[in-house]
Target: Tripartite motif-containing protein 3
Amino acid sequence: AVVVTERGGRHRFSYTGHPSGSRLWPRGICTDPLSHILVCDATTKTVQMIDRDGQFLSHLLIRPSGIFSPLSLSYDVNTHRLWVGSPYNTVVIYRYITRQDALTDEHRPRPDGDAMSSSTPAVEWR
Model:
């Protein structure tokens, strides 16, 4: 599970995946400018987006043919891109929040499978 606490360490909630209680195997985790919590799930090979209260919002990365397995996350606030790393020496870069979304806090995730507005080809690191 992903356990979220307040600054003082008091438990806020635990997230066990979508649907609730599923076999979440959390890996990389980060937040974005809209206070969404992004979690790599090794079980479903997706990136799950939850809100600041632990409610599931969307799958951001649906496994491409079962090949890509997200392991690490980093959100670049300057370019508004999410960097997703895999154990196969691959990094995929996505954009799902525009600069305007970040300024107005009006982004609404779309249903599963449509959360990405665009993606760039994988970058191979050797």
